[in-house]
Design goal:
mainly alpha; 3 helices; about 90% helix; elongated
Length: about 90
């Protein structure tokens, strides 16, 4: 049983590393992106991947309060998405 737990932990760590590499690709798109929608989309994808990494850390280390942090971060990302979408549509946040 301990072998399966160590394999599970290793897979979670490798998954977090792969997602972190994907965050750097999105960061490159956010910097180089040809237009504002591309940059906004890349930043929102980075936010989503950050939530996934925090959730993986909660699984790896067994800290349940990390899940609460991930949920709050996801809510902040959603509010930012709505604000940016409204700004891009109307040009103002009224």
């Amino acid at each position: 049983m301990e072998v399966l737990e160590s394999v599970f932990d290793a897979l979670m760590i490798y998954g977090a590393i792969i997602i972190l590499i994907a965050v750097f690709f999105c960061l490159g798109r956010a910097i180089v992106g040809p237009g504002a929608p591309d940059r906004v989309t890349a930043i929102l994808i980075i936010s989503t991947k950050t939530v996934v990494i925090i959730a993986l850390l909660a699984l790896i280390y067994g800290y349940s309060y990390y899940v609460d942090i991930a949920v709050v971060y996801a809510l902040m990302g959603f509010i930012a998405t709505v604000g940016v979408a409204k700004y891009m549509e109307k040009g103002a946040l009224e």
